[in-house]
Automatic annotation (TrEMBL):
It comes from Methylobacterium hispanicum. GO terms for biological process: negative regulation of DNA-templated transcription. Keywords: DNA-binding, Transcription, Transcription regulation. This is HTH gntR-type domain-containing protein. PROSITE patterns: HTH_GNTR. Residues 39-107 form the HTH gntR-type domain. Residues 1-32 are annotated as: Disordered. GO terms for molecular function: DNA binding; DNA-binding transcription factor activity.
């Protein structure tokens, strides 16, 4: 049996369990955000499964135990487990595959890639990005990097510079900064197109959310050279801080994007 931070409900019958699920009482808990009070039972199961993902109990691409197995282990109904799994799937942390089961999301999956890559072609095309690294090095963290990544003054980062193509069109120049302490040796690795899959598989760091700020800019000489356009060309700047399952900022990414043939797509729900 896997270790869990969830306190299974005491044996005493399904009657009490179903009453608690309907009322949303479950157990009192702080949850991830530290709020005091009662949390719906499925959210407690969600938090338990999320902790297992954060602790790398289940690896990217690995199949989870069945709903019935999880329900029996945690002492809740199968419907409660299903609701928690649905929420984790909606957050793109799990993937449901018809007839096969529920798997830990792999950032190489097309669905997962597009969860974080929001640039789409204006016309026809898949919109699938590819990339080419232009520079990578470890260095002392700058003031901006320390602020974005919540680092100490003496911290070091690894900076990755690369260009990205959408449907073979050069359109993005980006600088990515990650804490050197969390990603030892990354500067010596041949980097894949999708970095988040590398973070999870090699370093045990799963990106859960990302905060982005967008604004219009004019390209400086360096970015213009990388993107093979004239200095001063209008572009879209995307300033992103990615956060892992333990709510740590683990990546700062500054992307400068040409938008003559692509756009940024945001779906609001």
């Amino acid at each position: 049996m896997l270790d869990t931070s969830f306190d299974a409900l005491p044996a005493g019958g399904a009657q009490r369990r179903h009453e608690m699920e309907r009322s949303g009482a479950g157990q009192a808990g702080s949850g991830r955000g530290g709020a005091v009070g009662f949390r719906p039972l499925y959210r407690q199961v969600y938090d338990t499964l999320l902790k297992r993902l954060a602790d790398a109990v289940w690896q990217p691409g690995q199949i989870l135990p069945s709903e019935g197995q999880l329900a029996a282990e945690l002492g809740v109904s199968q419907g409660t487990v299903r609701k928690a799994l649905d929420a984790l799937t909606a957050d793109s942390l799990l993937v449901r595959r018809q007839g096969r089961g529920t798997f830990v999301a792999d950032h190489d999956d097309k669905q997962s890639v597009f969860r974080f890559f929001k640039l789409r072609p204006d016309g026809d095309g898949t919109g699938m990005p590819t990339s080419r690294v232009t520079a990578i090095a470890e260095a002392p963290a700058s003031a901006d990097e320390r602020g974005r990544l919540d680092l100490a003054r003496a911290a070091r980062v690894v900076r990755i510079e690369r260009v990205r193509l959408v449907d073979a069109r050069l359109c993005v120049s980006e600088t990515i900064s990650v804490p050197a302490s969390l990603f030892p040796g990354i500067a010596q690795i041949e980097l894949p197109n999708t970095l988040y899959s590398l973070y999870a598989a090699r370093f045990g760091i799963t990106i859960a959310t990302a905060n982005e700020r967008l604004k219009a800019v004019a390209l400086g000489a360096r970015e213009a050279g990388l993107l093979e356009v004239a200095e001063g060309t209008p572009a879209l700047e995307i300033d992103r801080v990615a956060v892992d399952l333990e709510e740590r900022p683990v990546e700062w990414r500054l992307s400068t994007c040409l938008t003559q043939e692509i756009h940024y797509l945001s779906v609001l729900r």
